[in-house]
Request: fold
Amino acid sequence: MPLPLAPIAGIALRYGTVALATYAMTRKVAIGRRDQRAEDALDDLDEGLSVRREPGQTNAGAKFHRTIRLGENGPGVEIDISALGRFSIRKL
Reply:
């Protein structure tokens, strides 16, 4: 019994479109560089969320740091999520 081509073609078209879009994005995205000053600033953040307001500017910082282990002394991973943000409005 022959396989119907419509469902297979639909799946192939969907995955082909995703693959083509991913390839196009990787060609357009510039290769980033590591800025040690930014790395140090993210490492110095306190855990939790902080917000600071000044006239014309609001700054925010957040850090989440956890260690997850399988068992008492088993293999584990360390998760460190840090973010800095600034919202600035300047009158021209």
Remarks:
- Helices lie at 5-28, 36-43.
